[in-house]
Amino acid sequence: MSSILTVGTVAFDAIETPFGKTDRIVGGAATYISLAASYFSKPINVVSVVGDDFPQEALDNLVHHGADISGIQVKKGEKTFFWSGKYHNDMNTRDTLATELNVLADFNPVLPEAYKACDFLMLGNLTPAVQQSVMDQIPVRPKLVVMDTMNFWMDIAMDELKAAIARIDVLTINDAEARQLSGEYSLVKAAQKILTMGPKYLVVKKGEHGALLFNKESVFFAPALPLEEVFDPTGAGDSFAGGFIGYLASTRDVSFENMKRAIIFGSAMASFCVEKFGTERLQNLTHKEIDERVQDFIDLVQFDISLVNN
Ligand code: AMP
Questions:
Q1: pLDDT tens digit sequence for 243-295
Q2: Rounded to an integer, what distance in angstroms lies between the CA atom of residue 122 and that of residue 100?
Q3: Other CB atoms closer than 10 Å to residue 63's CB: what's the count?
Q4: Assuming Cys at both sites, which of 139, 147, 153, 181 could form a disulfide with 168, CB separation 3.0 to 4.6 Å?
């Protein structure tokens, strides 16, 4: 087992999908990442910030799942980061209705001493300057640095974002973000360009159409599981990231071959996440359920072909 350090939002979300609407519920990239990763590797050392409006039970719940929360600052008299989004009928695209940075606006992360010996670093979606500051505080480069980000930061902090991307191993973004970051429409060309910006690997998430893993030489595709019901895609990308890094940390193998497996575990965690609103489905999974879900992925893409001319 290896230590995982993650930084990201711990947030309030208000979500609207064709199936319903939630008032402020607990979400945030670091919340989803920690919950998903906790099924593979513990502890998960979390760096984040919340206001004093954030419920203690939600922090206790992270601890219950194996998170160390000594790196989560609680700011007195301030408000927690708030995000609100509305999904279109296809459930694959969404509009952001509100992003209130609140405590995030001047967040200065301070890593507890015990977090600094970190093997696997998961930079969840957050201000790129904060992602960089976390990297700056780790004296020995981790075995693997994975980073997630989104169009919001490309729109308002592209230079800082590129500086952060230059220092990482794996970037996980969605297809629209890969196009925005590279200026290329073809995802193959986009990947080639992004792989010159620093990362050795690129994961392009395509929602219900699965995910692509690129390095300079190869590409691998993992499908998304066709699910009968998708209630709320919020956090799918973060659950994917948590499952991905959790599996890599549990196996301590960062080869391309093992990343293919990690992508399947990540996709399995994302498929659970979308089955209920918010983090609900990630709260009480069993290892048996996860194994069965991974088996569904194997069955989905397994086929036998004998090529006559080979
Ligand atoms: P995902 O659906 O995987 O993209 O992640 C959704 C989560 O990201 C929600 O729980 C939000 O609280 C969080 N989030 C939304 N916008 C941002 C942002 N600009 N920076 C950091 N986290 C965000």
A1: 999 999 999 999 999 999 999 999 999 999 999 999 999 999 999 999 999 99
A2: 23
A3: 14
A4: 147
The domain that holds 82 is classified in CATH as: 3.40.1190.20
Task: Look at residue 154 and tell me if it is in a domain.
Answer: yes
From the CA of 94, give the closest atom in ligand 1.
2
Please give the pLDDT value at position 93: 85
Is 13 part of a structural domain of the chain? yes
Token duo for residue 125? 């979606």
Alpha helices (runs of H) in 111-235, residue ranges in sequence order: 128-136, 151-156, 158-165, 175-182, 187-194
Q: Give residue 273's Cα distance to chain centre.
A: 12
Atom number in ligand 1 closest to CA 81:
12
Domain count along the chain:
1
In a domain, 70, yes or no: yes
DSSP state of 195: T
pLDDT beneath 70: ranges in the chain: 1-2, 310
pLDDT number for residue 204: 98
The whole-number pLDDT of residue 80 equals 98
Residue numbers of the domain that contains 205: 4-301
Residue 307 belongs to some domain of the structure: no
Q: What is the pTM of this model?
A: 0.96
Q: How far apart are CA 301 and CA 5, in angstroms?
A: 33
For the chain, what percent of residues have pLDDT higher than 70? 99
Residues with CB under 6 A from ligand 1: 9, 11, 13, 27-29, 83, 99, 125-126, 150, 152, 234-238
Q: Which of 45, 248, 32 is nearest to 137 (CA)?
A: 45
Q: CA–CA separation, 245 vs 152, rounded Å?
A: 23
Residue 171 pairs in a beta bridge with 147, 202
Rounded Cα–Cα distance for residues 188 and 75 (Å): 43
Q: Nearest residue CA, atom 12 of ligand 1?
A: 28
What pLDDT does residue 274 have?
95
